[in-house]
Design goal:
There is one protein chain. The protein is α+β, with helices and mostly antiparallel strands. 69% of the residues lie in helices and 6% in strands. It has 18 helices and nine strands. The strands form two sheets. The protein has a six-stranded mixed beta sheet. Strand 4 and strand 5 form a beta hairpin. Helix 2 packs antiparallel against helix 6, helix 2 packs across helix 11 and helix 4 runs antiparallel to helix 6. The relative contact order is 0.07. This is histidine kinase.
């Protein structure tokens, strides 16, 4: 066709495409060289800062151990402690100009003087003092730039940075063990959770050293092996074995000074290995920086020459192609950016039949009535675009109708299940009141619990379908009663530990949603934690923000940062998918998010990592959802297994279920 020959003649100019590809490759090379150079320079600077931070950490670790021994009764540590404090103060003054570290020092070490004074006067609590120093060390390790530095440009550099991170974790575990057992040996035995902390610290050390050996070079592994093969290291292992045998709280007769000396040699040796690895990483970054500078200069020269050539060819080619395609591009942009999105959005959001929404103005005109100019092939492309628009609109209408019908069907099914479960719960309640046999009553309670879980599933379906919002209840409920009602709706309720729940009263219209939301969080914690581990529920009043917080804490597998961000987006509604399109494993997240938004502004759900592993979910209720307490404020009850509170929770849950289900039936 003549038009096609015309297009082919113009496209001949597109001989410049290979040149453009070469230019793109050159640009990528230049960009890669520039990134490698910036990466090497940044790494070199950050390694230097890391070594200065680790020098401060090293002295803080020493002060922590000496202070713990002093509080345990070893008075001979006072001279060494005084000298160590001076070195800590000197290192702190050297770090004041580092903006990334200054805030951490202010937040975690501003009370260092008070801690020291309390230790000198023997009025400090040993466990609290150890925790103060450990928190400060952990904060400094967290702000260490090497802990966040990643690079994929060089395997050796990446392994060196990883080795630095793991060695810092191992050294902190060794130093913490030194300080912990220093106080234990000085006092003559373990107290409280000290033995558990001792075993956790040893496990952390073993894991960090294993990871270090995996990424470290052979010479560094040999240096580490030498550090753990000295007489002092072997002597410290003997002391550890002696401490391990005192798990039952029996008396420990050990020389705290000898333990301190042996472990200090080991900590200093690990610090020397750490400095040596840091020097190797810095040298490697210097070499990479030099190579990147040379490569960048060469690539820039070639890139500039090629850019000049491509610019001339591109200017000529664009003139011959852009004019015939201008009208087509304008029409396509109007369809893609305005007409099609607006029509599809109206179809999906409208409650009426989707087929009725396709107004005559929504269907594109015949392309032959709107000539775009240019070759015949361009007109054919325009006709194809209009056909795509027609097809997309009809498909959107069909999908909207299908989703609407599916949602209505699920909501109808949920309401039917809700009515059946309501009748079942009423029958079970009557049988419970009439039954006198304890064994039969226990079986009725299990049946009650099963029906309660079925009721929650039906209500979750209605929540996802946007149906049946609960009517306000006239009577507020106590916070403990709300927690008990939530526990009654989960399967493995015997594993739930209701910890201290400070007195609070939740307003009647929010009680059902709060209990349902807590049940979803507790169920998630039970599902993703070992069957031998309890899931804890806490409640407290935050006077600063005028909120009441419920926390569900598990010790399970936890979540990655990316998964937590996606879950948080579902909770807040910023990243919620349509529940019919979302994966089924995330339906609980969608239920929690919709319930939180139904509670209104200020009600929020947040996820945090549990110390020691696992995940913690925090539900914050604003003051407007809380009712005044009746009578004098009571102290929070002691922690107890949820099964001991389940009877009251069942009965309270059944009463609220009947009220909600009655409303569901009337709806």
């Amino acid at each position: 066709m003549p038009g096609w020959r015309s297009i082919r003649g113009r496209v001949a100019v597109v001989i410049t495409v290979p040149i453009c590809l070469l230019l793109a490759v050159a640009g990528l090379v230049v960009h890669g060289r520039a990134e490698a150079l910036a990466d090497a320079r940044t790494t070199r600077s950050e390694v230097g800062l890391s070594l200065r931070i680790q020098a401060l950490v090293h002295q803080l670790q020493r002060e922590r151990g000496l202070t713990n021994g002093l509080l345990g009764g070893e008075k001979d540590f006072r001279p060494s402690l005084a000298a160590t404090r001076e070195r800590v103060d000197t290192a702190l003054r050297g770090m004041r100009h580092e903006s990334t570290v200054e805030d951490v020092i202010h937040r975690h070490l501003r009370h260092l003087g008070d801690i020291r004074a309390a230790a000198d006067t023997d009025t400090a609590d040993r466990a609290a003092t150890l925790a103060f120093y450990t928190t400060a060390v952990d904060a400094l390790n967290a702000v260490d730039p090497v802990a966040e530095t990643t690079t994929g440009a060089d395997r050796q550099l990446r392994d060196g940075l990883e080795a630095l991170r793991e060695l810092a974790a191992a050294k902190e575990a060794v130093a913490l063990e030194r300080g912990l057992l220093n106080g234990v040996f000085a006092e003559g035995g373990f107290h409280g959770r000290e033995y558990l902390t001792f075993t956790e610290v040893r496990a952390t050390r073993v894991a960090a050293l294993a990871r270090f050996r995996h990424v470290a070079t052979a010479p560094r592994r040999a240096t580490l092996k030498h550090a753990f093969g000295t007489e002092d290291a072997e002597r410290s292992i003997a002391y550890e074995n002696r401490a391990e045998s005192a798990a039952d709280g029996s008396a420990l007769h050990a020389d705290a000074g000898a333990w301190w000396d042996a472990m200090t040699v080991l900590v200093d040796d690990l610090y020397a290995v750490q400095q040596s690895v840091g020097d190797d990483v810095r040298d490697r970054a210097d070499r990479l920086s030099h190579d990147a500078e040379a490569g960048l200069a060469t690539s820039l020269g070639a890139g500039l020459l090629m850019a000049a050539l491509v610019a001339g060819l591109a200017a000529f080619a664009s003139r011959s192609l852009t004019r015939p395609l201008g009208a087509l591009a304008e029409a396509a942009h109007d369809v893609a950016r305005h007409r099609l999105p607006a029509t599809v959005a109206r179809i999906q959001q409208s409650p009426q039949d989707a087929a009725e929404l396709l107004l005559p103005g929504d269907v594109p005109d015949d392309p032959t009535s709107r000539p775009l100019g240019g070759a015949a092939e361009i007109a054919e492309v325009a006709a194809s675009l209009h056909q795509v628009e027609r097809t997309a609109l009809h498909l959107a209408a069909q999908q909207a109708g299908l989703r609407r019908n599916t949602t209505e069907s699920l909501a109808n099914l949920g309401r039917r299940n809700q009515n059946l479960v309501r009748r079942q719960l009423s029958l079970i309640t009557r049988l419970e009141r009439q039954e006198l046999d304890p064994d039969a009553l226990a079986e009725l309670f299990e049946l009650d619990h099963l029906a309660t879980r079925m009721r929650r599933n039906a209500e979750s379906l209605l929540v996802l379908a946007g149906q049946n919002p609960p009517q306000p209840l006239a009577v507020p409920a106590d916070g403990l009663e709300v927690v008990q009602s939530a526990v009654a709706e989960v399967e493995q309720y015997r594993r739930v530990l209701i910890a201290a729940v400070e007195p609070v009263r939740v307003r009647g219209h929010a009680v059902a949603d709060v209990a349902h939301l807590l049940a979803e969080l507790i169920e998630n914690g039970l599902t993703f934690s070992p069957p031998t581990e309890p899931v804890e529920v806490h409640g407290w009043y935050d006077t600063e923000d005028d909120t009441y917080c419920f926390a569900v804490v598990d010790h399970g597998i936890g979540m990655s940062e990316a998964d937590k961000e996606r879950a948080q987006a579902r909770f807040s509604g910023t990243g919620e998918e349509a529940f019919l399109a979302a994966p089924t494993r995330f339906l609980g997240h969608l239920v929690v998010g919709r319930l939180a938004r139904r509670l209104g502004e200020g009600a929020q759900v947040h996820l945090f990592d549990t110390t020691g592993g696992g995940l913690s979910a925090l539900l914050a209720l604003p003051g407007r959802l809380l009712a005044p307490l009746e009578g004098p404020s009571l102290s929070p009850p002691p922690a107890r297994p949820a099964v001991s509170c389940l009877l009251n929770g069942f009965r309270a849950g059944v009463a609220r279920a009947e009220a909600r289900s009655t409303q569901g039936a009337s709806s």
